[in-house]
């Protein structure tokens, strides 16, 4: 295997791992789940079986960082460990969801504006003002004033 093929393979593996991790956050944002529920949800959403060796270490890391708690809940004959996002974990999941949504929206409906003065790319907001009979967009009022002073 040549180096570029090896790097491409590693890049694909990282992408797949990131997708699985993001999906775990989405699943736990919806409701607390035990390990099998997470595995089942991943399989349904991604259309592929995901190895427990990828999921459980990630859940353990989330628990260590205070983003997830686990508790033993009676399910059937024996208790199962159920994972639930903490408030901090829910906030992180919500930020991830919003960021992903914004990226998808940007790709589908490019609404990117550019500051008329400094060229900064604006995803939202900014300052617009009519200058010389044209409505221009600026990243801030300071750029607007600097543009007028040129």
UniProtKB/TrEMBL annotation:
Q: What is one Pfam family matched by this protein?
A: PadR
- PANTHER family to which the protein is assigned, alphabetical: PADR-FAMILY TRANSCRIPTIONAL REGULATOR, TRANSCRIPTIONAL REGULATOR RV3488
Q: From the Swiss-Prot or TrEMBL record, give the protein name.
A: Transcription regulator PadR N-terminal domain-containing protein
UniProt-listed SUPFAM superfamilies: Winged helix' DNA-binding domain
Name the species this protein comes from. marine sediment metagenome
Where does the Transcription regulator PadR N-terminal domain lie? 25-91
Matching InterPro entries, A to Z?
Answer: Metal_resp_DNA-bind_regulator (IPR052509), Tscrpt_reg_PadR_N (IPR005149), WH-like_DNA-bd_sf (IPR036388), WH_DNA-bd_sf (IPR036390)
